[in-house]
Fold this sequence. Notes:
The chain is α+β, with helices and mostly antiparallel strands. The chain has one domain. The chain has one helix spanning 2-56, and strands spanning 76-84, 90-98, 101-108. The protein has a three-stranded antiparallel β-sheet with strand order 1-2-3. The radius of gyration is 25 Å and the shape is rod-shaped. 14% of the residues are buried.
Amino acid sequence: MLLSVIMLGGILVSATAIAGILMLYQIRQANDAVQSTRAFFAADAALEWQTYDYVCALPGTICTAPLPLVFTTPGLSASATTTVISSTSTAITSQGFSGRAVRALESVF
């Protein structure tokens, strides 16, 4: 009788621990989805900002100077680079950062 109570108690404690770990993973995944979305939109903003800068640098284009890219959300940042692939094509690559999430976008002209 005592052995059966100890075994059932152990099974219940194990099941509770496994359920808690699974719940923790689900909560983390939900938070990571929010961070991922923020990082994606930061990368998109950096891509648009760099595209505007690239188009304004083309000969015969009249543009105002682009404002610096500033995010008001803490922990949110982005970077973008322009790479000349060949004489007729250029790639703009941007990365958005939010928390532990990093998302990248690329556009080729």
